Amino acid sequence: MVSRAEGLPRWLGVALLAVGCSLAAAAVTVAVLVVLRPASDPLDSRESTTVAVRRGEVRASLALNVVAEWKAIPAGRNRAAGIVTAVSVAPGDEVGQGSALYAVDLRPVVIGRGEVPAFRAISEGVAGPDVAQLQQLLAELGLYSGPSDGTAGAQTVGAIRAWQKQLGVEPSGVVQIGDVIFVAALPARVLVDPEVVAVGNAVAGGERAVRLLPGEPEFGIPVTAAQAELVPQGTAVEITAPGGALWKAEVAGQRADAPSGTVVLALHPAAGGTICGEHCGQLPVTQPSRLPARVIVVPVVEGLVVPSAALVTGADGRTAVIDAGGSRHPVTVIASARGLSVIEGVAEGVAVRVPAKAAGG
Predict the structure, then answer these.
(1) Distance separating alpha carbons of residues 301 and 334, to the nearest angstrom
(2) Separation CA 210–CA 142 (nearest Å)
(3) Is 17 a domain residue?
(4) What is the CATH number of the domain that holds 128?
(5) Residue 316 sits in which domain range?
(6) Strands 107-113 and 188-192
(7) Is 140 strand, coil or helix?
């Protein structure tokens, strides 16, 4: 007889060892079956409901603010000396050849078209490109019919005197250095610097006094870096104008001069021309304007619509919907936004399975 100290009988130990091996083999088999069994459809493991495929549309937009800011370009210096006695234009006014900008000691300072800045008095006998610019100005005012040959002859001096009478100054026949500010292009929208040219201010000559405005302000959308990822170049933008009209624009890219740590999406016209067209004058030129806008992240797409939660992806990578009977229907997703997708590949009216929570159940 074998004692407890000597262990179990040999036959019982052999039997237990065999049983243990069988159980281990079974556990391995179960594990292999669990690992190799295909994953069940995600809709099989949770409660679901059905939604019929219906015709509809998807769209998505971001409500953001557009900043419009005029970028004035320095264009002309004041050459008159004395006290400013009048300012004849408001910020952003459009001016043309011979328009009065302001007056110094009651003598009007006008604007003219020309590449050569005023640098001397023009009287009979003076010749040069500045004289030709003046002759062109007088011709467009209907006061001079001679050639713009750059020489101030008797006919030019006569036109100068007629012009001075119109301006209400002594008809001396001599155009003083401070009488005209020449700029490269006219007509143009102007901004006379209110810090320099204001009634009562003293001017000595040489001050940068006149700036020209471009055809329209710069339009940009300040966004976060995450929002910028949602708005690629070419994205449509609808801007609500101060008067209530909609201005159409597109994202042209990110502005290089954006302040550090921010992203500014630059805009350009959607169909040529300008964003604000003939209504740019609604925007103040002395400070930026903030305008509400819709950024069309997903344009309107019409078609057969299902909840995006109804879409499943198979092991082959293909997207499908599952009908009420469990059959798969491979589909092509045309567009998705706000939890809905426009699809192709399944008939209208088919009931497709959707997780109950996603369907609002």
Answers:
(1) 8
(2) 25
(3) no
(4) 1.10.101.10
(5) 42-58+301-355
(6) unpaired
(7) helix
For residue 256, the model assigns a pLDDT of 74
- Cβ atoms < 10 Å from Cβ of 130: 23
Residues 101 and 188 in one domain: yes
- If one counts the domains in the chain, the total is 4
- What one-letter code names the amino acid at 302? E
Taking the model in full, what pTM does it have?
0.67
* Bridge partners for 250 per DSSP: 236, 268
- Written as six digits, the tokens of 173 are 């026949």
Nearest-angstrom CA–CA distance, 133 and 222: 44
As a whole number of angstroms, the distance between CA 282 and CA 274 comes to 14
pLDDT in tens, 168-227: 999 999 999 999 999 999 999 999 999 999 999 999 999 999 999 998 999 999 998 888
Burial of 93 (0-12, 13-18, 19+ CB in 10 A): middle
Beta bridge mates, 82: 203
H/E/C letters for each residue in 2-70? Answer: CCHHHCCCHHHHHHHHHHHHHHHHHHHHHHHHHHHCCCCCHHHHCCEEEEECEEEEEEEEEEEEEEEEC
Q: Are residues 269 and 321 in the same domain?
A: no
